[in-house]
Amino acid sequence: MKYFLLSTTGDLNDQDLVLIDDPPKGIGLRRFLMTKGRPAKAFYPAEPKIFLREEHPGLKLSSLLGNTESYLIVSSEVKKVFEQLCAECEIRISPLRSVRSP
Q1: CB of 25 within 8 A of CB of 38?
Q2: Which pairs from 55-58 meet CB under 8 Å and 24+ separation?
Q3: ∠ CA(20), CA(48), CA(96), 5° rounding?
Q4: Would you tell me which of 45, 47, 56, 59 could form a disulfide with 19, CB atoms 3.0–4.6 Å apart?
Q5: For residue 25, how far is the Cα from the chain centroid?
Q6: Residue closest to 21 by CA, chosen among 75, 46, 58, 76
Q7: pLDDT above 80 for 3
Q8: What is the sign of the dihedral through the CA atoms of 32, 71, 65 and 80?
Q9: Cβ-proximal residues to 21 (8 Å cutoff; 6+ apart), any chain
């Protein structure tokens, strides 16, 4: 079986890339479902937001947003690649909106 090992943290040595430390606001303790690849649709917020921190401002745009939650937060182009390569697989896609911390 062919497989790929993906790191969800991105390049930790590049301070200009975003690093997200929290789950989408509103999912609460059910965040573990997404981390484990389990269905979370029933608990997923209607308007999901992830907040970007000043320590990791995200000055450079990348196809994968690094995070410590083990989520694959990817661009629409990367999403299309997954859909093509994994046409036979069940893929759960949940939208997010990134917001600068207040």
Answers
A1: no
A2: 55/19, 56/15, 56/17, 56/18, 56/19, 56/20, 57/16, 57/18, 58/16, 58/17, 58/18, 58/98
A3: 60
A4: 56
A5: 13
A6: 58
A7: no
A8: negative
A9: 53, 67, 68, 69
d(C-alpha 38, C-alpha 16), whole Å: 31
Phi, psi angles (nearest 5°) of residue 72: -95, 100
Joined together, the tokens standing for residue 48 give 């999901």
Residues paired with 51 in a beta bridge: 99
CB under 8 Å to 98, separation ≥6 — which residues?
Answer: 18, 20, 49, 50, 51, 52, 58, 65
CA-based nearest residue to 96, from 17, 6, 28, 20: 20
Segment 35-92, tens digit of pLDDT:
888 888 888 888 888 888 787 777 887 888 889 888 888 888 999 998 898 888 888 8
CB neighbourhood size of 77 (10 A)? 8
What number of other Cβ atoms are within 10 A of residue 41's Cβ? Answer: 8
